[in-house]
Structure formats: structure tokens, C-alpha cells
Amino acid sequence: MTKEELIYKKQTVYEKAGKKVVDSAFAYAENYKKYLDNGKTEREALKISVQMAEAKGFKEYRLGDKISVGDKLYYNNRGKNLFVFSIGNEPINNGIRITAAHIDAPRIDIKQCPLYEDSGMGFFKTHYYGGIRKYQWVATPLSLHGVIALRDGSIIDVTVGESEDDPLFYINDLLPHLGQEQSKLPLSEGIKGEQLNILIGSMPDNEDNSIKLNVLKLLNQKYGICEEDLLSAELCVVPAAKARDIGFDRALIGAYGHDDRVCAYPALTALLDCEDNTHTLMCILADKEETGSDGPTGMQCDLMLDIIDEIARNLGGSPAAAKANSKCLSADVSAAYDPNFPEVFEKQNTPLLSCGAVFTKFTGSRGKSGTNDANAEYIGWLRSILAKDNVVWQAGELGKVDCGGGGTVAKYISKHNIETIDLGVPVISMHAPYEVIAKVDLYEAYRSICAFYKY
Asked: What Cα–Cα distance (Å) separates residue 453 from each residue in 292, 333, 432?
């Protein structure tokens, strides 16, 4: 063998794949940016995903419906969790090709009794959702999203701050002139959770000089609600910024919610674009990953097993055999190497921007605690199918051994005897209100999943 064949060298997509793939990556990214802008919450991302599936001929499925070979179906779980699946013509006991990504993202949720006023300002009380760095969310433009469920069963959709003529929302920060003591605190303590109050108004009502009452009147005029209706609301604030190209060369995308819609979008589009009808395919877009995957819309719920059981039963197969022979890509992001913070990365095993999709054998923390750990045989098989389409990929891990770590939904899927590995896109500033990814990495994730569905 030659020296080049003996030594593994990580290469960028630009070096390895060439102009045709790069041009396709840039074109693919345009619709992804629209997906981000129109799907800033799990509910919104699900609605867009359903529209995309229906446009490709997928029909809504309800538990108990008959399932046949050739069916293209989706199951909408409570408006927050989506299963999209197509039934192939090979025996179901051969297993299912599964991808699982999450469509929730770190944000700030509005509490159930949120509205108050103090010192000439009206606020919403909040509780942050997921692993945020609180100081990043102050003094930045925010938009309000969510739903209000009324007692009569009707649902009111709320989106304020995304249109140019909409008002925005805001979290106050301390001016540097008076922030000397705050500046001495660790980053994690500079802003407290109870200080993440959303500024929503300052004009009092003419009748009794109440800012709170004036806000309630405005909400009543627009939505027909009263304060009690907020008890059954799910409202949150997210960054108002849109997805934009980053850099003179426009090779990167900055946006809110890359984690994990940068994996959800290629997982879904790869399934919708797949023309092979051999394998049974399933794309799961899950909720609640950022808070532990609990509840009926998270991946710890047994709904995935229920759907697999229904598919196997309808096709005359064994649910146990179907699971044992299934393969899964847990599609979640990885932390890209950042030369501004080299002290937390082990560069040789950290994914680099523009070097393709990332396969992460294990996540967890210190001593591989709390993680799935994919076996060598499965990784070898993935290498073989990716090579068929010349997909550019790299191996990765989440930081130095003793620097922390993280988790994904992989362990919740693999515990059901399903081969699972994490596949994702490297992200700069993960969990920040505005994250950055490379267009070519996004596209290689799509090509990886296409190969996984196909071979």
C-alpha cells in the first residue's frame, strides 16, 4: 500500500468531493434556511414537516389503521413529535432503517402566571428550557411563539416578532457603569434564572394607570383571551434573528435552532427523496430532547415501539425480529473544534467545520457514562455504504474526556435492541441563541442518510 493509503487524513468537502457537490450543498441550504425561519419551535417545525411529507404523497396514519407494503404514512403525536415512514417490499423481519432527530431547541418559556408590572415596566415571568447560557439571552431581540388552549377546546396560535412590522421583546441587562459587582461573578451566575423576565410593555391603561391591565386589554383585542387563559398556554421566547449566510464566501449559516434542526431537515428530506422501495424507512422528529426526552412526545416514550409493533403485525412479521434487525442513525449535532477555545477540545478526535458529517461512536461524560456506544461491526457497515456514494464524513467526540460531555436520544433507541450510532453536523456555539454550521456539512449529513436509507 502507498503512504497515502496507509495514513488516514481528514479532508474537507472542498478537497475531497469537488465543485459539483459543493454547488449542490449551497443550493440545498437555501430551503434549509427557510425551514429554520418558519420552524423556530417544535410545533412549527412539525407543521412544516407534515406539509413537506404530504407534498410527497404521505398520508396521515392513526394507531390501529391497516398498513400495507408501499404505504407512505406519517403519525402526528400531539403536534410536537412526528413519525414519517414508508413500507418497503422486503420482509419486515429484515428490520427498519430509522433516523431520529429532535426538533425542540433551548429557549425561554413563559410561566403559567407570568404577567406583572414593576417601576413603569410590564414583564412576563419565565423558566428557561434546556441547557442555555443565561447571559447570552439578555439585551437581544426576541420573538414570542406558542399556543393558547381555551376551555372550549379551541387553540390560538401566537407568533409575534417575526414580521418587520411586529414589536419585539427583550430581557434587561445591567449597564457596565453599575455592573462592577456583576462582572466579578462567574458567567453562570452573572444572570440569574429569576432575572430572565421578558419586557412586554410600559404604557398604562387610561382608566386605572395599570400597565398590566393595558397589556391584558391588548391581548384580549388581538386574541380574545383573559389572564386566566394563560394558565393553559404554551408560550416561549426565541431569538428574532433570521437564518443568514456567514462570511464573505457565504459558506456558513448562522441561525437559531441548528441544534437539532440541522439534522432533522436532512433526515426528513432524505426519506422524502428516497426512490428505493426495498427497505422500510422511518424518520422520527422528537420533542423534549433538551430536557431529558421525557413525556409522551419524547424518545423515552414507548410510542416508537407501538408503531414498530403495528407495522410488524400488519405485515405478518415479528416485532422482536424487526427491532433486532433494525438500524438507526440518532441524528444529533456535535461540537465543532473552535480554535478560540482549544483548551476544551482534543483536536485529533474533534470534528472540524467543512469536513463532512460526524459519526460519534459514544457521547456521555467522564468514563462514557450515560451513553450508547456503537459497536465496531455497525461502524464498519456504515463505512462500506458511505464509500459507495463517496460521502465525506469524520469521527468525533464531545470535548476532552474530563471536560463535560453530553447526551442524545441514541441510548433510548439502542436499549430496544436496535443498532444505533449518532450522526450529525458540527456546530459552533452550540446552544447559543445564534449558532453556526457549514453548508457542506449539512449536505453531507443529507447524503449520509440517503445512503443509509438506500443500501
From this structure: 27, 19, 32
